[in-house]
User: Which sequence fits this backbone?
């Protein structure tokens, strides 16, 4: 079930949180797919001048969580991160990275999302898998 109320415009209005701090911008959201970009700059680099692995995980978790949100009944359910892992494959020093997320499993109580993060040359920088618990909102 894809929830069409989540558009690029509405998602990019989510700025007063981690997304705004690190400059994440959503690019595409559709049934079974979501993508976003993030700058490689002073907000997202580690002291040695490379993209911080934690920043990659922030992008990955954002995509997994928001991807799940776009595929549930957001009036009665909430997606929450349960587990995430990340393998850092290649470093990035400048420009921006793009994350693309697709679901591996979308059940009633959990989702599993695979997130791949690429640099501007389309080289794989990080691959991540995230389990998202789908919980019922408290009334």
Assistant:
């Amino acid at each position: 079930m894809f929830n069409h109320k989540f558009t690029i415009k509405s998602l990019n209005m989510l700025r007063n949180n981690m997304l705004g701090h690190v400059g994440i911008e959503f690019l595409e959201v559709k049934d079974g797919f979501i993508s976003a970009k993030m700058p490689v700059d002073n907000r997202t680099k580690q002291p040695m001048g490379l993209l911080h692995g934690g920043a990659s995980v922030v992008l990955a978790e954002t995509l997994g969580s928001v991807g799940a949100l776009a595929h549930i009944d957001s009036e009665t359910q909430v997606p929450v991160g349960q587990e995430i892992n990340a393998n850092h494959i290649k470093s990035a020093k400048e420009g921006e990275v793009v994350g693309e997320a697709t679901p591996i499993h979308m059940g009633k109580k959990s989702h599993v999302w695979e997130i791949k993060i690429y640099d501007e040359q389309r080289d794989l920088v990080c691959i991540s898998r995230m389990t998202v618990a789908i919980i019922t909102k408290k009334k």
Q: What stands out?
A: The domain at 8-136 is CATH 3.10.129.10 (Thiol Ester Dehydrase; Chain A). The first strand starts at residue 25 and ends at 30. Residues 87 and 127 are 5 Å apart (CA to CA). The helical segments are 8-11, 18-22, 53-69.
